[in-house]
Amino acid sequence: MNETQMIRLFSAIHGTVPFAADAEIFGDLLVTMDSFSAAEDFFTATPPETIGHNMAVAVLSDLLACGIKGEFLINTWNIDSNLPESFYTRCARGIQKVLSHYGVRCIGGDMGCSKPWSWCAAAGGKLTIPAPIRRIASEKIPFDLYASGAFGDANFAAFNKLPMPEIELRSPAPANAIFATDSSGGFVDALENFRRVNPDLTLHLEAIPLAPLPELPFPKEFLLIGGVGEYELIYAMPKGEKAPGQLIGHGDFSNKGIRFPKGKRMTAPPPDYREIPAEKWVDATEKYYREFFL
Q: Residue 176: which H helix or E strand, with range?
């Protein structure tokens, strides 16, 4: 079974609503959790401070997408004793720097052992805006789509086995956004998060920002399809209302379909790279690119 199938299985058993929002919403409390390891998250060449920074931003990003900064974080370290104490010290300092930026307090956690190391954290906070922002649109009205920053640099680093870039520290999605998510699984995966819960969504993308990068051995759109996330926020604002970030498209709920600037209508999710052998990632990406971007 793939991740989507497992999410639906557990949601049916526990009575939750899958894919509705980036964080879990329990009354006026928003909570989220995530886990990380060196190989799965392409951290093997990344300095420890950046590892800690990126892990903390990634966890808090789900709350930012819902419109709040959060208040607390609790974490579990599974320690690989082959690594020196200095590695964990530097990771923890990277984590704390992000928590201090957002005013989030680490309230403790648990400790274990594993090889290789892994880190898991839950974060949460009370609503500080009238209502949480979900992936499901709060109103079916014409909108403008914004992105908090550029995409592609994390996928470029993963493809070239380079250190992961440090994730930008962003403000929460605007309180009056009608829907939002983050690009934790890459840009096209974020669009799929919108599409699966808004069956009548009509979206025309116009100007997707890509990070400045060296000349590539493949079309730059590959970096939008890849599954490594930049954790940029993507949010829809009521038509004509200005917002921070870059305007990348517009839409409404008059029909259904997501259209790329020069391509066809998106009718399928991007490749699930966790289900594909690494040696076939490029082929799977090229197939998706030819199907929907050309």
A: none
